[in-house]
Structure formats: structure tokens, C-alpha cells
Amino acid sequence: MRSLEDKMWRMTVKQIIILILTLVVVLLDTHTSSSKREELHIPYDSKLDPVSHRISNELSSSDATKRADYRINRFLEYWRINGASVALVKDEKLVFAKGYGYADVEKKEKVEPDHLFRIASVSKLITATAIMKLKEEGKLQLSDRAFGEDGILNSENYLTIRDKRAKKITVENLLRHTAGFTSRYGDQMFLPLTIAKKMDVPAPASAETIIEFALSRRLHFTPGSRGSYSNLGYVILEKIVEEASGKKYESYVQEHILQPAGIFDMHIGRNLREDKLPNEVNYYEQSNALLIPAFDGSGGRVHRSNGGNNIEELGGAGAWIASAAELMKFYVAIDGKDKQADILSKESIAYMTKPSRRGFSPIGWKGTRSNGTWWRTGTLAGSSALLKQNPDGSTWVIITNTSSWKGSDFPKELNKLMGRVMRSVKKWPEADLFNYFEAQPNQLAFDDITDFLEHS
């Protein structure tokens, strides 16, 4: 009888200890998770952490991919690129995600899958997706006019229009770079000091001021008659997203595009290294890069990648930062395939990717072909990116944190590299890193203790 009472007492004590441990672990996990999310500005989600936070380089290191590692490392050395991140999707599964080189050269911090990079004009694909989502929500049409009394942007500061053809600019013109804006006299989004002076406002000129400046000048061609690549056009689309949704651009994209797709660590980047997110890489330029006047008019001379360009005002045209893994998760949400749910209808995706006649662009993408090849490039001082879907259905992205003297042509070299990489691997891993769940240290400790108690 006494033995039975002792056994029951010990069982009760074990249950109390396990209950206490459970509460401690929950509290520790909640504190760690919430503080980390707050530090990285990641919205809370009870289901998932960012996929890029759950994986590591080790998961994509194998004998099968050694030749790929060798080619990428040689490429970085040849072009003097400090760091890069690569991710590959096959059959809508993330089968490879790995960092190379250094996120921070000075601290010798190596690139891991959770590091964030500026993705430059790959941002336009995000903005185009937001516009198509608003269309599906019934909040705008692609034929809607951007400017004029009946336009989406019809506030007083946008009604002083010199060239009346500007009133005919549609949302679709902006998406396809056929609105009439060119960079004949320089890219407006990279002239914050010049435009501030011309508009007689304090430097730097805001995106709104730059749009006003553009409307005070004549268009270079009639909207819809031909195409000319325009960062300004996608900044205007950013403002249209805000007007149509009633939300800040970044908030709308995160709440209606990214988070529904399970993406929690993509953000609008900042101008200065000192303001970057804790898991964001440093950016580097070629050794002979020229210093330019600081964008804010302070009078100093700085690198374009650290205070020379006004990244924050570039917004929907080129300011997003992302990991390669989460950028692949975004792609899977707009690829029109059946294994993973998309955030747009098949009709919207088909319309975005339909090959256009010469001189015109598809929507969001840099180019698309009838054989299933889609690509989106991005370059800024200090970064370069290329996202590409291949005819066989495989899709990859490569992002660097160092610019090259080849400038906007550097993605061509990235494309050559990745072609060699793809040919060098006979069989890619089968595991889907999108669905990899890493056990938390606190949970491991809890499991060890409870196991000990159960067997004592």
C-alpha cells in the first residue's frame, strides 16, 4: 500500500514538474520569438516563422552540389563579389538555398539563407502583383487613368499638368513602361538634389515632388505608342496602390500579398548602412567607384549604396529587401502552377506573363517568352539580382551584395553563371526546404528533461 502511494506521489510530482517546464518553455519561446520579431520588424504569425530563418547552408551542402559551389565561388572571386545568395525551385519545391561569401566583410560574417539583400528592380514584380491584386479586389482597372480630374491620383498637387497627353496615362501604360516617360535627361528617381533645386524645395526631393516635376515637363512620347523603361512609372504605381487600397504601400503589400503567401521577412529597405535590419547584408561597390553628393543635400560625398541614392523614395520601383528563399516563395505564389496556391488568379498571371510585341514589356517581368522563360533583373550600386524561370519549369534566383563595373549588364553574367551551375548538377535534392521545421533549442531541452523524468 505504501509503495502504491509513493508511486502515485512521484507521478504527481512529475506531472507538476512537466507543467512548470511547459510554462517556462512557452514563456521563453514567446519572449525570444517576440523580441526577435520586433528586432527584425516581422509581423507575428502563430503558424510559421520565415522559411529563411528555419534553414541553413548545411541543408544545401552535399556531394551532389559540390560542383555548383565551386563554380559560384570561382565566379565571386573573379568578379570580386563579396557575397551572394542562391535559391532554386523545382516542381514548386525549394530544393536548394545557400549563401556564399560574406554578408559583412569587416566582421567576417558569412552569408546564410536568412540574410536580406536589396533586390533592386525585382521590386517591380512585387508592385505589379499588388496592382493585379487590387484589380481582382475590384478597387481599380488597368484602363483607369492615373492623372487628371478623373484620374486615380487627382489630388491638387498632381493637377498642374503641362502636357495634356499625361491625362491619358493608364495604369497599364505604367505597368508596361509605355507612359511617355524616359531617362533621356537622366533617371528622375536618381536626381533628388537637381529636382529639389528646380522645384524650389528642401533637398531631397520626395517621390511626390519628383512626380510633380515630371508632370511639369512634356512627355517624350504619346502614352501607349512605344515603350521606354521607367523607374518613375513604378513609383507612380506605388502611389496608386496607396490611393486605391487606403493603406501605405508597404503595409498593403505585406498584408495582402506577402503574408497570405507565408512570407514574413520582406521589407522596404533603408538608405544608410547604420539603419539596415540586423539580418541585412552590407553593400559594396567596385574599388574604383566614384563618390557622389549625399542624396539628402548635407554636402558630403558618399558611395551611392550608402547615402548616395535615395533607396527609400525608390519604393515600389526598387527598394524591397528579401532573402533568396523568401523571394522564391513569392515566385511560387505567382507562377500559375497547381501544386501550391497562388495569390493571383490564373487569368491575371497569364496576362502578366504574355509575351509582348517588340518595344513593350510584360507586366512586372523584364521579359517573357512563349517557351516558358520568364526573367526579372535588378541592379543598384552595391547589389544585383536575377530571377529566372526556365523552359523545364525550374526557377532560380541569385542576389549579390556587391556591384560590378558592368552595371545593369551584370545580370547577363549572372545568367551565364547559373546556366553553368544548372548543368553541373546531375540531380538536385528532393527535400522541400519550404516545409523544413527546425526544432527550437528550448523545445529540445524540454524534451530531454521530460524524457529523463518519464524514465526515472
Biggest sheet strand order reads 3-2-1-12-11-10-9
Main sheet overview: 7 strands, antiparallel
Please state the CA-atom Rg, rounded to the nearest Å: 25 Å
Q: Encode the helix/strand succession as letters.
A: HHEEEEHHHHHHEEEHEHHEEEEHH
The computed structural class is alpha+beta
Net shape: globular
Strand content: 5-15%
Count of runs of 4 or more consecutive helical residues: 13
Give the uncertain stretches in residue-range form: 21-38, 40-47, 439-456
Give the distance, in angstroms, between the N- and C-terminal Cα atoms: 21 Å
How many DSSP E strands? 12
Query: What is the helical fraction, as a range of percent?
Result: 25-40%
Average pLDDT taken over every residue: 90
Describe the overall structure:
This protein has 456 residues and is of the alpha+beta class. It contains 13 helices and twelve strands. The strands form three sheets. Strands 3-2-1-12-11-10-9 form a seven-stranded antiparallel beta sheet, sandwiched between helices. It has a three-stranded antiparallel beta sheet with strand order 4-8-5. The protein has a two-stranded antiparallel sheet with strand order 6-7. Strand 1 and strand 2 form a beta hairpin. Helix 2 packs antiparallel against helix 12 and helix 3 packs parallel to helix 7. The two termini are 21 Å apart.
